[in-house]
Amino acid sequence: MNIEHKQQEIVEEFSMFEDWMQKYEYIIELGKDLPLIEKENKDDEHLIRGCQSKVWLHATVDADGRVHFSADSDAIITKGMIALIIRVLDSEKPVDIVEADLHFVKDIGLMQHLSPTRSNGLASMIKQMKYYGLAFQASA
Amino acid sequence: MIAEAGHKTSTDFMKVRDDFPILKTKVNGFPLVYLDNAASSQKPQQVIDSISNYYSNFNANIHRGAHHLANLATEMFESVREKLALRIGASKHEVIFSSGTTDSINLVATVIGHSMINAGDEIILSEMEHHSNIVPWQMMAERQGAVIRVIPVLDNGTLDIDAYRKLLNEKTKVVSVVHISNSLGTLNPVKEMARMAHEYGALFMMDAAQSAAHMNLNVQDLDCDLMAFSAHKMCGPTGTGVLYGKEKWLEFFPPFRGGGEMIEQVSFRGTTFNTLPHKFEAGTPDIAGVIAFGAALDYLDSIGMETIAARENELHLMQEQRLLEIDGLRMIGTAKQKSSLSSFVIEGLHPFDIGSLIDQMGIAVRTGHHCTQPLMDRFKVNGTVRASLAFYNNEEDVERFIEALKKANSMLR
Question: What CATH code is carried by the domain that includes residue B93?
């Protein structure tokens, strides 16, 4: 399943929610379930400083040239959003990550979490994911 | 008598809400509950109209023109200076227009640095200062080789006045302290603190960004040397504010920015500067903003600052009582003398998560460090939720805020 398919799948899932509460309850659940970043990677080097919540992000590339992300945040809703973004971009090729247009965030009505206020570091996180993609592309 | 006044004001305040068009806004399908007044107040129609009226009928550059409109605009602009001077007990030429509190503090820190700070001199700030009353002083201290001393904050969110007394010494040149903390709501004893600073010959500056919206300030009574505040927290427009300074200091300080308006004679051999207040007002000011600020002051006075304070206290009391119903809530800032805001954390929850969820229910609060990171470190929190009230809020706002908090609390558990 490619990035576009995964985005469509998420949009479809979210279309079943009847109100904002169901939507956020789901994101909170995702946040709680997000596999934590390895302890040794939850350091300042992997920290993306938002104005309010912090995000830690790490990436590796496997033998097939596919990128794997692990991440964490101190805020649960931010974590839930991270889980969705990782679901879309994980196990993809660097070039596809660099070129990805994450329209699903807008489609499911959560664009305010990517607002330029930098409040939760998510916009910076996506940028950082793309930088990882670029770096892996260059080293491939 | 208090009950009677309370009853009367609550009836009047129903009408007051109609003056603020934005209060009819819906957010995420819910009527807006605006509890971020400490960040910026909303604007009554009178202020909004004043801006449009200025541009529609009076727009011209001030002070220089010899034509009808220029004269009218100058008169309108200068009448606001008079209004402000009267309001705070100052002389007209002691009221300098700036772009806001931050701008005023930068002005003061810069000119004091140039004129009276030498290596080893000391500047006293407090642990509860907004970044705008920390960073300009740090920048200046670094340039001049001066040292910054910090008054600690006690557990209840008040300043440690004994520690302040010990910090003061002959090397202290300036004390700059917030009047009402934007993060805690604490009302600091500035009059007493100014007196103590003066015993050592130090200047006392007061950041009145929060307090100017809630009470009458009199610089004679407080005996502060310098005071800064912003229009946008007082129902006025953004981009305009005030620096008050005692005449003797403003005369003594060198100019801040160079440009038109602040000069008397310019030649390439040298320039002589204009008299106060123009010496500190280089370039075309925010004329529309200042005139609308005047409309905001008239608006506040039409209700009365004491009536405003009484109404805000009434709502704040209700808010603080109702917040006790929230499981795991810890109030940050429990001073006896506190303005109309509540800053708190809920154990185990991130303020940002709480803010995001209650925003879904139309509630606007501020979450985060409120530009007071040293204070957050002091209380060992990564931020707080801050609900700040204004006189145009009502009991229903508080009610909906508490209900939303309860819902968010249960969703996040």
Answer: 3.40.640.10
